[in-house]
Design brief:
The chain is mainly α and 92 residues long. It is 53% helix and 4% strand. The radius of gyration is 13 Å and the shape is globular.
Length: 92
């Protein structure tokens, strides 16, 4: 997993700037939509708030929109999706 503030500089963004936070949300949303369309888990599950150890609200909103998260326990869904990401992308 990687924190938002650690991931942001990798794509030229600064999470201290509101406009950059919005751009990070858009980028992660696009990545997850693409992964979902390819039948893969939501890769953005690996990007988290370090102080909470979970993704932001946008992750759960998108998962709900895609019919993957049905509004039960966010933590349970997150852990499940993170495991799916790991299982899919782990070395054999």
């Amino acid at each position: 997993m990687i924190g938002y503030s650690e991931a942001a500089p990798l794509v030229g963004l600064d999470m201290a700037k509101p406009g950059h936070r919005r751009r990070m949300y858009i980028l992660l949303n696009q990545i997850s939509r693409h992964e979902h369309a390819q039948g893969r888990p939501l890769l953005s599950a690996v990007v988290i708030h370090r102080n909470r150890n979970t993704p932001g609200n946008g992750f759960f909103t998108l998962a709900a929109e895609l019919g993957l998260f049905r509004g039960r326990c966010r933590l349970t869904y997150f852990v499940s999706e993170l495991r799916r990401v790991h299982d899919y992308w782990a070395y054999p």
